[in-house]
Every structure is written in structure tokens, then in C-alpha cells.
Write a structure and sequence with these properties.
This protein has 83 residues and is mainly alpha-helical. The protein is 57% helix and 0% strand.
């Protein structure tokens, strides 16, 4: 499941898709990540101001990793079609 994310909303949508693919709800993800359900919701809805540590806690709980690479040539509008 490779997804390109260039905004908080796209990161949140990718995390939500991964959570749903695993068949777990926000409360379960919160428990697995050591966070509150409200924080999971905040991240999934793309709200700004989320700490990097929070993002990494969620990635670890979902068995995902962050990969940094040069930006592809696709436009931002093309990325919206993915989500």
C-alpha cells in the first residue's frame, strides 16, 4: 500500500485507510499507539499541529514506515484522485 501524501489531510487519509484495512477502529488504534482516540481522529482528519512523535506512534502501531524521497512530477490535483 504505497500512497503519496503531500498535506496533513492526505497523511490522515492514508493512515485512516491503513487502519480500516487492518479492520480496527480508532479506539483500538489509540490503545495500540498509546494515544487518545481524540488524537487519532485529529490526525485522520488532517488537523495541523500534530507532533511528529504522535505520527510515528501511529505509524508504528499500524506497522508502517515513513519514506522520504524526491517529489514525483505529478501535480497536486493528481494526488487528490488517489484519496
Amino acid at each position: 500500500m504505497d500512497q503519496i501524501a503531500r498535506s496533513p489531510g492526505q497523511v490522515g487519509a492514508a493512515l485512516q485507510a491503513a487502519r480500516k484495512a487492518k479492520g480496527i477502529n480508532q479506539t483500538t488504534l489509540a490503545h495500540l499507539s498509546g494515544l487518545r482516540q481524540e488524537m487519532v481522529s485529529k490526525v485522520e482528519t488532517g488537523q495541523t499541529g500534530v507532533k511528529l512523535a504522535t505520527l510515528f506512534d501511529l505509524l508504528a502501531a499500524l506497522d508502517l514506515e515513513l519514506v522520504i524521497r524526491p517529489r514525483s512530477k505529478s501535480s497536486a490535483a493528481d494526488m487528490d484522485d488517489i484519496f
